[in-house]
């Protein structure tokens, strides 16, 4: 049971019912902060986790301020929603497989892909269902994360664009993104382990049936964009197709589709990786930022 104020006035405080999750929508477009809920408890309580899952599908991003969650509970909470997967480049906590370390410090800069709107790991054939991110250490100011509602981004596209992209597919590549900074042997080994994946440009949400604009910084090109220009130039992505892809990728940057979270240590955010994109704002060097993320395995996009 929860008291969700989003259907009434978002500004109105929800009634407090003992034991009930309080739902405070963050914007008109996306996100809700859940209060009066313990994720440590949800890591052991399947009914509570199911309630959180339903709210996640509805609000797309859920914010939990000041949770006291151990690493084991973080993993156990995320496991309530599916298997976890490690990241081939970022690396995981050795004692807690599935808990990816996103540690940024001035002496070990690993910031190449921080400033890009993306859904996590769409270079996988089965991109994650969702992620649970916990703040271990954050800078005194800065280091926020932003999320965008990609259902709304699709809905607001001009009708002629919707017609143009219906049925289009795009290639998503870890090689062209994380791999691009590697020496050639490492890059090719990464590609051999994770070949490019192909996904529909407009994905259907498996739970809601909503259409989602599903291209992001991992998308390199359309695989079936066919126009007279393509016949003339062959598979030249610089003609037409690439401008359209860039236009679509840029939609996540529209502020009206977004929510922004200012982290404090102990905060946890969970997002539906199918219907959102996110952007970690790299405005805090020379300060440190330490986040730990559990990525929950998803399903094929068609
Ligand atoms: C991510 O890209 O999954 C991490 C976002 C963040 O560090 O805020």
What does this structure look like?
The longest helix has 14 residues, at 46-59. By secondary structure, the chain is of the alpha+beta class. Residues 7-17 have low confidence and may be disordered. The chain starts with a strand and ends in a 6-residue tail after the last strand. It has helices spanning 39-42, 46-59, 71-79, 150-155, 159-165, 184-193, 228-233, 241-249; strands at residues 2-4, 21-25, 32-35, 61-64, 99-104, 130-137, 145-149, 169-172, 197-200, 202-204, 211-213, 219-222, 258-261, 268-272, 276-280, 289-296. It is globular, with a radius of gyration of 20 Å. Strands 1-2-3-4-14-6-16-5 form an eight-stranded mixed β-sheet, with helices on one face. It is 22% helix and 25% strand. Residues 102, 120, 131, 133, 145, 278, 280, 291, 293 line the site of succinic acid.
